[in-house]
């Protein structure tokens, strides 16, 4: 029975991952996510149903358009696979619990914004608004887990504090950076995203996520500069680092915080 659940979630995750690719790209381009159907950007070949099977079709077609043989970017297949694996992993960590609903919504948000941020360095407001509504509604009925809390308040208040903190801190970082450097140092999408994440994670895990995202972003950016993948002043999308750091915080945050304080004692 357990293996069937894993297989089911993997298939569902892969299908949603394929859809999230479309959402992340088309909404940013100002296009409908329904019409027209998927087609090859090079020759215009309308992709058939059997060519759209998540993950599988990429290998079946050899990573190329069936008609013009133009190479298909691996990013589509990668996002399908990542979504499928994260759906399965969420169940592995949380089981068939109400919190699993929150986890799958968070994964879905992260995949969509990672697609758009990596491609266009944009996190669309409409995506954030939709998931803000969904996640606020979820937290109204699904309490913040006890090990996420900080202030021993009602779970809804804990979530509200996390949201205000996440949005407020990044807003002031961006505001001060604008004054000091006379340029945007924090994207508006990133600021709004942390407002949503604060509601999901609560105060202490939002703080941990911010620390980890900064650490990961700085490390990868430095490696890319040293290896000449990018130039020093080349902007790097911060959204994927926020997503990765927040997933680590969501699944392992309380344990990481306990481990850190045990080192200090």
Question: Could you characterize what this model shows?
Answer:
- The protein has 265 residues and is mostly helical.
- The protein is built from 9 helices and no strands.
- The longest helix has 28 residues, at 2-29.
- The termini are far apart.
- The model has no long low-confidence stretch (mean pLDDT 90).
Summed up:
This protein is 69% helix and 0% strand. The chain is mainly α and 265 residues long.
Largest sheet: none
In terms of per-residue confidence, which ranges show pLDDT below 50 for 5 or more consecutive residues? none
- What percent of the residues sit in helical stretches (DSSP H or I)? 55-70%
How far apart are the termini?
Answer: 44 Å
Structural class: mainly alpha
Q: What portion of the residues fall into strands of 2 or more residues?
A: under 5%
Average pLDDT level: 90
* Overall form: globular
Q: What is the number of E strands? A: 0
Can you tag this structure with a few keywords?
mainly alpha; 2 domains; 265 residues
Q: What secondary-structure arrangement, pairings included, does this model have?
A:
Blueprint: H1 2-29, H2 56-60, H3 74-94, H4 99-120, H5 125-141, H6 155-181, H7 188-201, H8 203-226, H9 239-264
Helix pairs in contact: 1-3, 1-4, 3-4, 4-5, 4-9, 5-7, 6-7, 6-8, 7-8, 7-9, 8-9
């Amino acid at each position: 029975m357990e293996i069937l659940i894993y297989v089911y979630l993997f298939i569902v995750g892969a299908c949603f991952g394929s859809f999230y690719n479309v959402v992340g790209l088309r909404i940013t381009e100002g296009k409908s996510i329904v019409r027209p159907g998927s087609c090859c950007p090079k020759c215009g070949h309308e992709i058939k149903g059997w060519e759209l099977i998540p993950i599988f079709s990429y290998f079946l077609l050899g990573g190329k358009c069936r008609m013009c043989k133009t190479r298909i970017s691996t990013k589509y297949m990668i996002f399908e696979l990542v979504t499928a694996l994260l759906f399965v992993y969420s169940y592995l960590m949380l089981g068939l619990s109400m919190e699993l609903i929150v986890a799958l919504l968070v994964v879905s948000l992260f995949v969509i914004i990672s697609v758009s941020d990596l491609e266009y360095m944009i996190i669309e407001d409409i995506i954030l608004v939709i998931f803000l509504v969904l996640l606020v509604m979820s937290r109204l009925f699904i309490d913040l887990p006890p090990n996420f809390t900080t202030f021993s308040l009602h779970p809804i208040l804990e979530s509200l504090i996390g949201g205000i903190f996440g949005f407020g801190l990044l807003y002031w970082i961006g505001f001060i950076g604008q004054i000091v450097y006379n340029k945007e140092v924090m994207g508006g999408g990133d600021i709004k995203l942390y407002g949503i994440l604060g509601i999901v994670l609560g105060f202490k895990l939002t703080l941990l996520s911010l620390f980890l995202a900064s650490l990961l972003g700085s490390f990868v950016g430095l490696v890319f500069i040293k290896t000449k993948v990018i130039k020093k002043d080349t902007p790097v999308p911060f959204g994927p680092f926020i997503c990765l750091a927040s997933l680590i915080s969501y699944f392992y945050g309380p344990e990481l915080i306990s481990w850190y304080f045990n080192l200090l004692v």
